[in-house]
């Protein structure tokens, strides 16, 4: 974390890693008597706003909850539309992302995604692998409980193979077997739409994360909302269980 004085925020602590649960697309559309699909479309603009805000504030890592493992139970029309949005966003934004020095990573069971989207994911990872200005992680077909189970299974296989003993396992070792092993833990988690729960997102990683819940629906999220959340984060005293 760094302290950055700026015209917009004054002197404030800037979190190194921000995670966002992008919630409220459906309610945004319903308020306007539109189909839910329109809410998802408008939500793409909010992603651009979040990226712009993180770049300007100096946030190093941004993780977005884009599609959960539970979202596969939604109506097929909505799922297909979301897949189409992912295709459109990846193809349209990749040049701008590269030019901005952003590296894109993915977590989640992406093998469940359509093959052409899997191919786009691999292309984006290769194209952006040397970028360092901002690390953008997209959680696609992601569920934190499944991720933790995967880590436990991997450790169990190593015990079975005689590569380690149960006594060797500690918090750091578990963390190294999660999909986010090369990322710092989130300093700040933002959830839009007024809901106040994690929804199976980064359960292990958010043990000491500061939460900020915003009433704004995700399609209406703008840079100023990010700044407000960062200012709230900067006002808190993080004690990590100590006095």
From TrEMBL:
This is Isoprenyl transferase. HAMAP family: ISPT. Homodimer. Gene3D superfamilies: Decaprenyl diphosphate synthase-like. Catalyzes the condensation of isopentenyl diphosphate (IPP) with allylic pyrophosphates generating different type of terpenoids. Its EC number is 2.5.1.-. CDD domains: Cis_IPPS (cd00475). Binds 2 magnesium ions per subunit. Belongs to the UPP synthase family. NCBIfam families: PRK14830.1, uppS.
């Amino acid at each position: 974390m760094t302290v950055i004085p700026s015209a917009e925020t004054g002197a404030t602590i800037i979190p190194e890693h921000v995670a966002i649960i992008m919630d409220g697309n459906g309610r945004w559309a319903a308020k306007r008597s539109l189909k839910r699909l329109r809410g998802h479309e408008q939500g793409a603009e909010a992603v651009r706003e979040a990226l712009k805000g993180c770049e300007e504030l100096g946030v190093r890592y941004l993780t977005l909850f884009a599609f959960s493992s539970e979202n596969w139970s939604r109506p097929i029309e909505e799922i297909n539309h979301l897949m189409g949005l992912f295709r459109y966003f990846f193809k349209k934004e990749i040049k701008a992302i590269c030019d901005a020095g952003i590296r894109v990573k993915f977590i989640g069971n992406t093998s469940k995604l359509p093959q052409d989207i899997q191919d786009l994911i691999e292309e984006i990872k290769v194209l952006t692998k040397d970028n360092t200005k901002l690390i953008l992680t997209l959680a696609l077909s992601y569920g934190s409980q499944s991720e933790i189970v995967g880590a436990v299974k991997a450790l169990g296989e190593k015990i079975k193979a005689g590569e380690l003993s149960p006594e060797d396992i500690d918090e750091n070792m578990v963390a190294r077997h999660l999909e986010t092993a090369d990322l710092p833990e989130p300093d700040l988690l933002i959830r839009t739409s007024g809901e106040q729960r994690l929804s199976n997102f980064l359960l292990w990683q958010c043990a000491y994360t500061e939460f900020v819940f915003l009433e704004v629906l995700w399609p209406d999220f703008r840079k100023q909302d990010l700044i407000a959340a960062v200012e709230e984060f900067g006002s808190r005293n993080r004690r990590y269980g100590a006095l």
